[in-house]
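User: Can you predict the 3D structure for this chain?
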Amino acid sequence: MRRVLLLTAGLLLAPSAPLAAQAAPAPGGALEPCDLPGVGPARCGSLEVWENRQAKSGRRITIHFAVLPATGTATGDPLVPLPGGPGQPTIALAGALTDMVRALRDTRDVLLVDLRGTGTSNSLECRLYGPSTAEFAGPFYPPERVRDCVRELGGRADLARYTTDDAVDDLDDVRAALGYDRLNLYGTSYGTRTALVYMRRHPRHVRSAILHGVAHTGYRMPGRLAADAQRMVEAAIGDCEREAACGAAFPGLRGDLRSITGRLERGPVEVTLMDPGTGEPATLSFSRGLFAEGLRYMLYTAGTAALIPTVLHQGARGDLAPAAELALASRRGIVSAMSNGLFLSVTCAEDVPFVDRDQAARAARGTFVGESRLRDQAAACAEWPARPVDPAFLEPVRSDAPVLIISGQYDPATPPERGEEALRTLPHGRHLVIPGAGHGLSGSLGARECVPRLLAEFVRAADARGLDASCVASIHRPPFRLNPIAARPVTLPAPELAAHAGSFAAPGAPPMEIRLENGRLRLMVQGQTFVLVPVGPEQFRVAGAPQLSVTFAREAGVVKSLTVEGTGQGTLTYTRQ
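Assistant: Here is the predicted structure, written as structure tokens:
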């Protein structure tokens, strides 16, 4: 259910435009001016709620929220983004969350709520790995770290009170406090479950709902995780085989995958790689579990899925560095972007207790994931003080609200079947499957021109059936990468590195700043920082993102521009300011 926050070509190549905010407060008047990273002026507020909503006694926690006022005349039914995880914050992701719905900003407020246990609302953040690279190589949830988290968080939170039911009731309190009558819900990944449960518990206050990557109430993650991931990696390999250039470059990919998993099944392999966080050489004890996790996350976007053939090909021939770097980058990205305690509070109450372990184990046999994730997550939940929800929670959500469901054709986490299952009890719903897409849309060619328009038109009309979705057929995955991934950096003297630093801009794209700090070039864009590692005199790689390369150009010996290239994304040239 997690929506992984890795650097993708979309971040560096995506157009950006300023978001305005009007001076008048939103309904309710309890908001104060604030500034949101990546967005700008907004109106922020908070609301105290009972941690134990049933008893209405004991500890109170503060729910923080922000309103991006409509740039024109507001309709009074805001759009409410509900991100994934469970555990992603909302307010800190304001820029990314509002980018997809920019066309709606003229008539609708955007209401951003950090749900309980996330972001600024009594976040259940705890450290599961690190800081050393070696500590990232263990189980998905190391039991000793989980026990540490229970001790750390238990003093300020009742970990059994952080479930989806509680979160949506908090959200409805915020809605009422701000004076909104109905909401337009926009859930992604686990956020789709949040939206569905809100629709069940507060049906009168739902105008419409968008569900992207459906993790419905009966999902029972990770019961189907290994089998779903295997189907999707087989689909990616099949696409490569049918593509003449890819098939010729990488014959026998299924054998390559079996070769890698067989080698790692015998024990971890020591791999020297480019550390995704620092760009420095690092040694990692690369296990089958971490390999499987990394490969599965590569399927999350079309851009990273395009790397799978070359990663498998290199790995089967002894070069596991690209696979290890991508796996380490995905795990680092999850840890930095998630409230891991909330992930456990939700999944240990709503998912894991209801997984048929024997059935899930049978389904996992023969897959590249195997039973590792099932074992790791069950072991973590055995340590976590969660209480299983009433089994009635798992029943399908029924609603008469207009619903637009979006699935990625090759999504390994929430495949299109989950969308079809949810649709059965949503009579005014419609399900669109995005060709070649994964769990997210990054790397899907044509998606940026099509999907935001569909979202805006759906919300304006509150009608999925009449939506002209013909543009979906034009969306497709990028070509597979055919050349090897350079994992070994070269050394450039400090003066040469310094020559590449500066401010760079491109029409319609977010500006970027490149600085030399502690002997490394660091690229800063939209509040995030990434390490540039030289693999040639003017060629650099983004550490942790092999699909991205940055090439500098000089005039009369002076760096004047740079070009960012991502797999299948084309190029974008920035000029030095």
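The CA atoms of residues 35 and 41 lie 5 Å apart. The chain has three domains: 37-123+157-219+393-474, 225-383, 494-576.
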